[in-house]
């Protein structure tokens, strides 16, 4: 029992509300008792359906905002956040967002207005928001990090994801290295409490199950967030995101007997941000 209490894991599924298929796959993992927390996108096609499904659950997972500044359109009209959008009023892709930040062309006020609007939309549908993070880890970027940290403090949300996963030798090391470097550049004294986050570099595919099990083996004492992206790939998603069949692979791994057997060993306890 001491070992269980000492190593607690939040399995958080990002991109809830992206599409109906993504939400459906995540909820399969919630029903299986594997996913304990979800990060919700609010300016995407599956938001309304996703909230309806959450409300129908007898026991819902923890719920946080998955701030989306890089896919689709903003909540606010483009004229209110002009440096976040292109000429068509669509949110900038991540490389263009980064370029505007590092050339000083992004207005921090635009980020703050849109982030607040997204949080307010989620809270109007689901008041108990317990954490904040972002699509494609955009909040590792300096302007976005400052905004999300301030927003969390003023909104009374305790947890903001700290994407500082140790860089090892398995898949995803380069991606994690870049995210960690950006996070360090944007470091600020006003950061609130943080939890270790792992799984950022995982990518659905033939090796996902092995990588996920390896991540669980390396969990340190305390509370750790493990990030996953399961879902049901569908044609609608292809217009929004290239991460398609990989979601199905993650879903299969999360529902697999191998993972159930690993969790049944009893040296890890699943939890969520509400209990962290």
Which helices and strands, and how do they pair?
Elements: H1 2-6, E1 7-16, H2 20-31, E2 37-40, H3 47-55, E3 62-67, H4 94-102, H5 108-125, E4 129-134, H6 142-155, E5 159-160, H7 173-185, E6 197-198, H8 208-217, E7 222-228, H9 235-238, H10 245-254, H11 257-263, E8 269-271
Helix pairs in contact: 2-3, 2-10, 5-6
- Count of DSSP E strands? 8
Beta-strand content estimate: 5-15%
For the residues shown, what is the average pLDDT?
90
- Roughly how much helix do the residues carry, as a percent range? 40-55%
Radius of gyration: 18 Å
CATH architecture descriptor text: Alpha-Beta Barrel
Q: Give the N-terminus to C-terminus distance in angstroms.
A: 18 Å
The number of helical runs is 11
**The CATH homology group name:** Glycoside hydrolase/deacetylase
> What is the CATH class?
Alpha Beta
- What composes the largest sheet? 8 strands, parallel
Number of domains as seen in the coordinates: 1
Derived from helix and strand composition plus strand pairing, the structural class reads alpha/beta
What shape does the CA trace take? globular
Question: Do you know the CATH topology?
Answer: TIM Barrel
The low-pLDDT segments are: none
Order of helix and strand elements from N to C terminus: HEHEHEHHEHEHEHEHHHE
Provide a concise account of the structure shown.
The chain has 276 residues and is an alpha/beta fold. It contains 11 helices and 8 strands.
């Amino acid at each position: 029992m001491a070992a269980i209490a000492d190593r607690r894991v939040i399995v958080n599924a990002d991109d809830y509300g992206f599409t109906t298929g993504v939400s459906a796959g995540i909820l399969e993992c919630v029903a299986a008792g594997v996913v304990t927390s979800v990060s919700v996108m609010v300016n995407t096609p599956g938001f309304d359906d996703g909230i309806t499904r959450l409300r129908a659950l007898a026991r819902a997972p923890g719920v946080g905002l998955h701030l989306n500044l890089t896919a689709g359109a903003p909540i606010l009209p483009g004229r209110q956040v002009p440096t976040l959008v292109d000429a068509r009023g669509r949110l900038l892709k991540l490389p263009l967002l980064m370029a505007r930040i590092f050339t000083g062309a992004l207005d921090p006020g635009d980020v703050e207005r849109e982030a607040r609007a997204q949080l307010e939309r989620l809270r109007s549908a689901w008041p108990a928001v317990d954490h904040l993070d972002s699509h494609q880890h955009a909040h590792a970027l300096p302007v976005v990090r400052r905004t999300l940290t301030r927003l969390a403090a003023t909104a009374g949300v305790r947890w903001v994801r700290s994407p500082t996963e140790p860089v090892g030798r398995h898949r995803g090391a380069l991606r994690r290295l870049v995210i960690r470097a950006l996070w360090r550049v944007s470091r600020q004294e006003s950061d609130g409490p943080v939890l270790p986050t792992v799984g950022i570099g995982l990518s659905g595919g033939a090796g996902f199950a092995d990588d996920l099990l390896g991540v669980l083996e390396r969990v340190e004492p305390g509370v750790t967030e493990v990030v996953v992206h399961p879902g049901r790939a569908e044609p609608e998603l292809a217009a929004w995101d290239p991460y398609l069949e990989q979601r199905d692979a993650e879903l299969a791994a999360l529902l697999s007997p191998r993972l159930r057997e690993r969790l049944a060993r009893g040296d890890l306890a699943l939890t969520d941000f509400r209990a962290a």
